[in-house]
Amino acid sequence: MRRFFSYISFLLLTPLGFSSANVYAGEMSKAITDHAYNTIDSAIESWASENIPNLRLLEIETTTRNNNKPDIRFLTILSISESEYEKYLSQVSFSTYDNRETINVGLVWRGTNSAKTLIYGFNSFYDYEINSNHSRLGLGIELKSSVYDVNVNVYAGLSDKKNYEGSLEEAADGYDIEVAMYVPYLPWAKVYYKGYEWTSSIFNVKHGETLSLNLQPTSRLTLEAGRQRDNTMTVGQTFLQVNYTLCCNNETTNKPIVFFSPMAYSYQSVENRFFERVRRANKIVKGVKGAVTVGRGT
Predict the structure, then answer these.
(1) Among residues 47, 64, 201, 274, which is most buried (max CB within 10 A)?
(2) What integer pLDDT is reported at residue 30 of this predicted model?
(3) Separation of CA 47 from chain center
(4) The pTM is what?
(5) Is the same domain home to 72 and 96?
(6) What dihedral angle (degrees, nearest 10) is formed by the CA atoms of 276, 281, 282, 285?
(7) What is the span of the domain harbouring residue 17?
(8) Looking at the structure, do residues 115 and 244 belong to the same domain, yes or no?
(9) Would residue 198 count as lying in a domain?
(10) Widest pairwise Cα distance in the chain
């Protein structure tokens, strides 16, 4: 009887390409891939702990919009001073997009309540676009919990108007306000809504909105897909952002964390979120004479 069911399973699965050999080969391939990733991650973790003991996050990010070339960013967070209930950090990132490179250097303070169910903090950043010599100052505040997040950022352009590649452009002032709510029963999924505006003597960006779904299927991988629009767009833009943590989340494996919670919402400890990246616009938004160039991103 067991042989009969095995034979029937073989007949049903083989036309679909799911013979036992194929299934076994697929499982083997996945196991080898997972082992390779875990080996690389462990090697990076070991090297970092020995050579950069104050490294708290090393992350690579890529963002694609419609059919445009992807933006790529490398980001790191370093610890300056720590205690149980507060952290002084430095966040540094380098990004390249549309043949422009940007460096962001920031100081971050974060504290928590006695139950560690709420993290609050403020930050300051200096943004510099290498190719055009544009610069900008940013200030922000943030709240993090297991139910909701809030991020508020303001930006002030520091550089004068510049002629770059035949166009007159100016670093814009602006702000963004972002609120996130966790999806009920899915503590690894969040919905973000952000509103933003940018002003310059050349052009103003108004009525900016972004709505996105953020998923963390594993301890190292984060996916965020959404839609963005403002007065510079005839139609909205779709985007997909992928973040992969290379170091140092204290996880030994890239294990899945997808599950259903028995409660829709509950305030849990968020101590493990102390070293998350600051969500902000890292690209310098610029007004360009006769048009607008917007460096979009979080």
Answers:
(1) 274
(2) 52
(3) 24
(4) 0.82
(5) yes
(6) 180
(7) 1-51
(8) yes
(9) yes
(10) 82
Sign of CA dihedral 24, 28, 31, 33: negative
Alpha carbons 175 and 140: distance in angstroms, whole number = 9
Q: What is the pLDDT of residues 156-183, one digit of tens each?
A: 999 999 998 888 999 999 999 999 999 9
Please, what is the Cα angle at 61 between 52 and 118, to 5 degrees? 75
- Candidates 68, 70, 102, 35; CA nearest to 242 is 70
Task: Please identify which residue in the block is written with the tokens 């507060």.
Answer: 86
Q: Is residue 33 part of a domain?
A: yes
Q: What DSSP line would sit under 67-115, residue for residue? A: TSPPEEEEEEEEEEEE-SSEEEEEEEEEEEETTEEEEEEEEEEEEE-TT
Q: Edge to edge, what strands does the sheet with 286-288 contain?
A: 162-164, 167-171, 286-288, 291-293
For residue range 4-15, what is the model confidence (pLDDT) as tens digits? 444 434 443 444
Name the one residue in this structure whose structure tokens are 């900008």: 136
Exposed, middle or buried: residue 1 (CB in 10 Å: 0-12, 13-18, 19+)?
Answer: exposed
Q: What's the confidence (pLDDT) of residue 258?
A: 80
Beta strands in the chain (DSSP E): 55-65, 71-82, 86-97, 100-112, 118-129, 134-145, 148-157, 162-164, 167-171, 173-183, 186-199, 205-215, 221-229, 237-247, 286-288, 291-293
Tell which residue, 80, 79, 125, 81, has the closest CA to residue 103: 125
Residues 32 and 136 in one domain: no
- Give 103-152 pLDDT, tens digit per residue: 999 999 999 999 999 999 999 999 999 999 999 999 999 999 999 999 99
Residue 298 included in any domain: no
Terminal Cα distance for the chain, rounded: 59
